[in-house]
Structures are given as C-alpha cells and as structure tokens.
Design brief:
seven-stranded mixed barrel, about 375 residues, Rossmann fold
Length: about 375
C-alpha cells in the first residue's frame, strides 16, 4: 500500500506503508541513532511527533519483550528508508512493522530520509501528516494549518502513569514524577538500591511530601516544558525541602521553577552520539539525547551554575544549585552502552545518579 508524508510547507514524500493504515498528524523530527530503535519508538518523549530514523535500515534485530521504555508507543508515526522484514536475533519476537501495526501506529518506508532530514535541518521542525489514505493534498494542508503547534498541546497527561506504583528495595525512598518516564530511569535508580515510587504528573507538593521521600526525580517527557504547569509549581514548592534531580524535560521544568526560561531549538537534539562536557569533572561524554527545547542560560538566576554543556552548539546540558541540593541533566544518563559486568567503563554516565544519592544523605 502506498503512503505519503506531507509537511506544512507543502513538501511531500511518497512511501510504502509498513505499519497501521490510517492518518496521523504531528511534529516531524529525526533521530540519528544507528541502533536502539525499539527504545526510541517506545520513548514517551516522542508523543505528538512523527519520527524519521536517519539510519538507512531499521529493524534488522527485530522487537523483543524486554527493551521497551514505556507501556506502549506514544508517537504519531514512524518514517524509515527501509524497514527490515526478516529480522535476525535470538530475542526477536516480531518485526518493527508488526509491532507498529499492533499498536495502531502509521509507518512508511522507501522514503528519502536523507532529503527529509536535510529539509528539517534547513527549515526547522514543522507539522506534518502521515497517511495511507487518498485524501487530496489540499485538504491535508488545510488540516495542518489548523493543527496546534506542539507548544500548544498538553502531552504529559497522555503519557503519565495513571496510578502510583512502587519498585521495592531497602535503600532510600525516591519519588519519580512521571512526566513521560523512560522505564530505564526507574530501573537505573532501583539498581542503586533505592525504593522507587512512581507517581502521576498531577500530584502536588503536599501529595508528594505525604509519601515521605528522601528525594524527588522529575522525569523526561514530551512537549514544551512551559506546558508542565503542575510540575513547575511542585518543583518550586519543594526546592530546598527535598533534593531534586531533573532529567530531560525534568531538567527544563526545574529551570523554569527556579526562575529561568526555555526556548525551542530549530530541529532539536535526537541521537546517541552527542558530545557533552562535564565542566565540574573536566570530562567529555558521548550521550543519548531526545529533546526539542533548551534552557536559556542568560535567564538563570543567581545561585544556579551550569555544570554541563553541549559541545556541538554550546547549549546547557546540566545545572546545579548547591544550597538547594538540586542537580539536572538534559541528556539521558541511564542510556549507556554495553553491560556493566562486561564494559565497566560504559557506565560513566551513571555519575549523575551517584551524585544525586550523595545529596540524599543528611547534612
């Protein structure tokens, strides 16, 4: 079956349907990762977006039951140059196309993803529609002009956990506010020995304090951080009362809660090879990233220091407020390659979690 991707500026790409039949709208973005497509597709931070993978072959090791980052995919569509129809891996249980069909996600391949990526890099992210229907192009463009921009949509309420749940352990009690939590964040903290309670994004400061946590984590998630009104208010109220750790969207939310500002990047940072310098430790990490907004460094109030910086464009990748016991990370420190027992050096980006645990200790 034929399919189309139509951008709001009228640019059209023809392809072949590999997912569900239908039509979906969203902000069109690209990710440059060579592997990890299962984790990427199931990352809730892609909610409201149509994702284009730049690596030319996606799905060659299939889909397995263990590597999902959420209960289901929340993105609106997936674009690839080619989806592998015959994956080969001992853990594989289905193809990417079958997984997307099962979850009602429209997907196309046979798309010139190189041309699409270049277009987005030049023009910036824009709204698009992915469709297998024969709707006239003019009508699709009308729909796109009326569609809200991603900064106008509350996406957090769609991805957050509907109820509180706990990962038991004997260590410090950490509450994670789920703004679009990647499950590997919770697993990484749980693996340090912490007892983890994941709560919906709607909980307020009083609700969280009643759980008697040793610290609060504001998770990654989708959309414009300025739409996370409750999370901003909660972080503002709890700053100084609890140690805070912000990751991804949580990093931006904490910056807003402390009086800073954020802005939209032209085409975002989405990939697995972004170099970030840790200013405090004088080290450079190759990081996994997925975000379309950044913290405005000039807007940061006195007391907040920049601890990490993106070496590609100089944007803020980490903050710290020593007196308030707050640290934030823009990239994903839980997304390290390899296995700790085989490649111990591959866990170097676990450092932010260890730093956060130090903040939990009585002063």
């Amino acid at each position: 079956m034929q399919g189309r991707l139509v951008l709001e500026d009228g640019t059209t790409f023809l392809g072949i349907s590999r997912g569900a039949e239908g039509e979906a709208q969203g902000e069109v973005v690209f990710n440059t990762s060579m592997t990890g497509y299962q984790e990427i597709i199931s990352d809730p931070s892609y909610c409201g977006q149509i994702l284009a993978m730049t690596f030319p072959l996606i799905g060659n090791y299939g889909i397995n039951p263990e590597d999902f980052e959420s209960r289901r995919p929340f993105l609106r569509g997936v674009i690839a140059r080619e989806f592998c129809l015959t994956p080969s891996n001992w853990r594989s249980v289905m193809t990417v196309g079958d997984y997307l069909k099962e979850n009602n996600i429209v997907a196309l391949d046979n798309i010139d993803t190189r041309a699409l990526t270049r277009h987005i890099r030049i023009k910036g992210c824009m709204r698009g529609v992915i469709t297998t229907k024969d709707t006239p192009r003019e009508i699709l463009l009308e729909k796109l002009q009326k569609a809200p921009h991603i900064s106008e949509i509350d996406l957090i309420s769609e991805v957050t956990t509907p109820e509180i749940y706990t990962l038991e352990n004997n260590g410090p009690h950490i509450v994670i506010m789920d703004l679009g939590l990647k499950l590997s964040i919770a697993r990484s903290l749980h693996n340090t020995g912490c007892r983890i309670t994941v709560v919906p994004a709607s909980l307020n400061a009083q609700d969280i304090m009643e759980l008697k946590p040793a610290g609060l984590v504001l998770s990654s998630g989708p959309g414009d951080p300025q739409m996370a009104k409750n999370a901003i208010n909660t972080a503002n109220e709890l700053a100084g009362k609890l140690p805070l750790l912000g990751i991804g969207l949580g990093h931006q939310v904490i910056a807003l809660a402390l009086g800073g500002k954020t802005y939209k990047l032209k085409f975002g940072h989405r990939g697995a090879n972004h170099p970030v310098k840790d200013i405090l430790r004088d080290k450079v990490y190759i990081t996994s990233q997925n975000h379309g907004f950044a913290v405005d460094e000039e807007s940061l109030p006195v007391g907040i220091s920049v601890t990490r910086r993106n070496l590609n464009d100089g944007t803020v990748e980490g903050l710290m407020h020593e007196n308030l016991r707050i640290i934030t990370i823009q990239y994903h420190p839980e997304a390290y390659p390899g296995l700790p027992e085989t490649f111990p050096e591959s866990t170097d980006s676990q450092y932010p979690f260890n730093h956060f645990l130090e903040l939990l200790k009585p002063v």
